[in-house]
Amino acid sequence: MKFLSNLKIKQNLMMLVFIPAFALMYHTITKGLEDYNKFNSNKVAENSVEISVSIASLIHELQKERGLTAGFVSSNGKKFRNRLATQREIVNKKIKMLKELKREKADNINVKFLKKSDSVLNRLNKINSIKKEISNLTIEKGRALKFYTTLNNEFISAISTILENMTEAKIANELSSYIAFLKAKDNVGIIRAVGTGVYASKIVTIEDKIKLSSLTSS
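Structure tokens predicted for Methyl-accepting chemotaxis protein (218 residues):
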């Protein structure tokens, strides 16, 4: 199918552009955060940033689960079953680690960030019911992907609240860049998820075309 070929070429080109940029930005942000942790005595900001790194790690794994979910649902459960099960375990571990870290730092982190991230974690309580629908193939692909994408967007929004009380200009700029990086990375993740679903089913729906067009043209 010509559309599939064009999609694959466009997706690969985007990944060629994004991956080096992401790697460089990740290195820059990580180095900046290390410097911040070494020299800044503001524990509230420091702890908030530490939790944001844990959130970013969870987002990364949720993106993987979203992609595998797209392939699993689109293939009517014929593909990606084992990989999806393994990825779900990884996500569960990341969620547990994040919750433990938040409990450990709860008395000394940005209050607005705490409330915002708690709100998103409460949404995560619904993830098991969504996973059950996915496993039973009783959910539409679009609704499943939207659940993951909404979670990721809300987590990124929570990280953004740290900037409101950030007094270190250098770290604020780097954190702003990191947030932009997370948003761009999630958009690429959506493209990959939709693409995985298309290749698994060999069918391109109108919804898929609209979604891909909106992301690749932005």
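The chain has a mean pLDDT of 78.
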